């Protein structure tokens, strides 16, 4: 494998790792926020039910507070579902990218092995060099796509 190919592969793997790490950190940050919101909501519910007998609260106010609590709980649930969907999407993207990276690498390895064969004709040698070059270009395209995705992820 020549230096350019190795550099492209290493760069593509690095970018892929950066995307995965960025999404993982973002997901953990969101989960932490959800837990904090749920703890606040739970403590508020507890305070409301404990303090309710000693404080005069009209049925209208109690209903309004209850509706707001349900709305907050619904929003938290919606955000959690969105986060899970994004996690699945990330998993699918990573799987797709890893499969797309395997093909050009396999073609390049095979081409290099065949190019070492001294019995190849010039025509065959050119064909394998063209396949190798096409695979390097494909890896470069994938790497550029990963860089763009990474930039979009980081804002």
Descriptive overview:
The protein has helices at 3-51, 59-115, 122-153. The model has no long low-confidence stretch (mean pLDDT 76). With 155 residues, it is mainly alpha-helical. The protein is built from three helices and no strands. It starts with a helix and ends with a helix. Helix 1 (3-51) runs antiparallel to helix 2 (59-115), helix 1 (3-51) runs parallel beside helix 3 and helix 2 (59-115) runs antiparallel to helix 3 (122-153).
Helix and strand topology:
Elements: H1 3-51, H2 59-115, H3 122-153
Helix pairs in contact: 1-2, 1-3, 2-3
Tags for this entry?
155 residues, mainly alpha, 89% helix
Average of per-residue pLDDT values: 76
Number of strands: 0
**Rg (CA only):** 27 Å
Largest sheet: none
Share of β-strand residues: under 5%
What spatial form do the alpha-carbon principal axes imply? Answer: rod-shaped
H/E series = HHH
Low-pLDDT stretches:
none
* Number of helical elements: 3
User: Given the helix and strand composition, which structural class is it?
Assistant: mainly alpha
Calculate the terminal CA-CA distance, rounded to whole Å: 35 Å
From the structure provided, what is the oligomeric state, counting identical versus distinct chains? single chain
Helix content: over 70%
Précis, in short:
The chain is mainly α and 155 residues long. It is 89% helix and 0% strand. It has helices spanning 3-51, 59-115, 122-153.
């Amino acid at each position: 494998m020549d230096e350019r190919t190795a550099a492209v592969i290493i760069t593509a793997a690095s970018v892929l790792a950066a995307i995965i790490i960025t999404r993982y950190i973002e997901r953990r940050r969101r989960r932490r926020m959800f837990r904090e919101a749920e703890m606040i909501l739970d403590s508020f519910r507890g305070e409301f039910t404990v303090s309710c007998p000693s404080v005069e609260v009209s049925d209208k106010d109690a209903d309004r507070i209850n509706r707001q609590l349900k709305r907050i709980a619904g929003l938290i649930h919606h955000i959690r579902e969105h986060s899970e969907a994004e996690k699945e999407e990330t998993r699918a993207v990573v799987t797709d990218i890893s499969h797309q990276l395997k093909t050009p690498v396999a073609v390049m390895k095979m081409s290099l092995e065949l190019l070492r064969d001294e019995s190849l004709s010039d025509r065959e040698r050119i064909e394998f060099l063209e396949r190798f070059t096409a695979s390097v270009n494909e890896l470069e395209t994938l790497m550029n796509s990963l860089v763009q995705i990474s930039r979009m992820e980081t804002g």
